[in-house]
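Final report, closing paragraph on structural work. Over the funding period we assembled a curated collection of sequence-structure pairs, and we close with a single example.
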Amino acid sequence: MARPRTPIGTFGKISHRRIKKGVCQARARYRDWDGKLRAVQCTGTTKAAAELALKRKLSERSLFQPGFAGLSADSTFAKLVDYWLEDMEVEDRLSRTTRNLYERNMRTLVAPSFAELTLREIGVARCDYFLKQLAKQSYNRARQARVVLRLALGLAVRHEAIPRNPMDHVSRLRRPARTPDAFEDSEIELIREAVRDWEERKIMAGPKPDGQLGQIIEVLLGTSVRIGEVLAIRIRDLNLRGAIPTVRITGTIVSRKGEPTHRQDHPKTSRSVRTIALPQFAVAAIRARLKKRLSIDPDALLFCNRNGDPLTTNNVRRRLRDVMDKAGLSGVTPHRFRRTGATAINKAGGIGLAAELLGHTDSRITIQHYIVRDDLVNPATARMLEERFGGRA
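Its predicted structure, as stored:
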């Protein structure tokens, strides 16, 4: 009968011998991860010390199994990053926009601090300290760095280059308190007035604007959708002849490095595909825009440049900021119109309707990021206290 082999990652009987006075050697045959038996030895001042040193060496060796991607505990973090980026391309599970974002965050936020370290040297304490220092500069940067660092080290765990992911044990990042901000009615009027003045060239020289900025603002305010989704509206997505005018949100505008700006045929999430009833002020802005559109192609974009190509979200944001700065208004962003609409709908129709308008699957997201809290306590409390205590005053 064949003698059973020592299991991979374990060692056989330890033998000892005295090399010279004060120096003892302990040795054992270790079955490595490639199945081969290798002699491993350590020395110490005594038999017990040599055996303890050998067991520590074998224990450390058994923690790190070489991965099939050529990764090991002694591979550099830079090598892991290269393989992680390649693995995302092969897996093709994430959108191109998300992959580009992950690569940017990895190379700008994480790699400068970890590139020269081996995977063996990246532990919980180092990761925890790195994130806390980054969070002092920016909570959002620390949050983005945490995501990509966890994903990359998770790949190292799956390839058995390290035994566990140190990111599983770092302390939670503390989100700074932030209250969603929305425009007051008076601010909306000031914004509209500033755009009208700019479009009439009262506060800016140059070619006469074509009216798109003001129309985009009205659609943002009347739909509470994202700026990329507004710029992706096609003529076919509009139904202005029905009893209830509507727009269907089915895509968004994306601008990726190395690619031309284009319309993506789906918005941010599947829940974001929705049909929204339009208020009359948004209908009026859309009709005014349609009068200036020469193309009758149903796939043509409602908002576009002179060549019919998509507008970039960054250019619209930049133009809005320039116009508002010249009018002395600050803090005006496309996303703030989204929070303004959500706050108004929540106040009039409840959080469920506000979440539905925004395309959120979880109303907690709506509450946390989009709804301005109304701190007015129900005035009924004054009546109740008056009835209870007023007669005794």
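The CA atoms of residues 96 and 259 lie 11 Å apart. The chain is about 45% helix and 10% strand. We thank the funder for supporting this effort.
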